[in-house]
Amino acid sequence: PAAPPAPPPAAMADVFLSAVQAKAGMSSEESEPAELDALAATMPEDSEPAPL
């Protein structure tokens, strides 16, 4: 029996990369990235589990 033809290269990867490139193209070059301190402000102060 003949082997079925190989599927085409992953189209999903192309869709993903297109979406990433579009998102990168929309970002402003003048805007500053978010500071890490600003992101850390949304994190809990204590990441250790509380004793019961």
Q: Which sheet architecture does the biggest sheet show?
A: none
Shape: flat
Strand content bin: under 5%
> Structural class given helices, strands, pairing?
mainly alpha
C-alpha termini separation? 64 Å
Total number of strands: 0
Order of helices and strands: HH
Q: What integer is the average pLDDT?
A: 67
Number of H- or I-type helical stretches: 2
Low-confidence stretches: none
| Cα Rg | 22 Å
Please bin the fraction of helical residues. Answer: 40-55%
At a glance:
By secondary structure, the chain is mostly helical.
Describe this structure in words.
The protein has 52 residues and is mainly α. The protein is 40% helix and 0% strand. The chain has helices at residues 11-26, 36-40. It is flat, with a radius of gyration of 22 Å.
